[in-house]
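Please, structure for the following, as tokens.
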Amino acid sequence: MADPDFSIINTDKGEGVTYTCGCPCVPAAVPADGAAGFEHCCCGKVHFAGAGAEPALTAYLAGRANRKREPRYTRGLATVGAIEVAWAFPEE
């Protein structure tokens, strides 16, 4: 799987990070108050954007794994402009 191509998007909540998902969604993670924001797309892809994106993603996935069956994820890191991005997409 190729790494996602992240880009900056302006939303009602402010500047965030998005990617072309392949489903009808336009996933946008918007950092807020110095913390990472996230979006979990309808197709199971999740990304966090902002300070502390990687540990926030790790904690989020660990919490989900304790509550329900989760798929295996391919994970990665990126930087878009000055925004840290951590992502996890279900393995195909």
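The chain has one domain: 7-90. The two ends are 8 Å apart (CA to CA).
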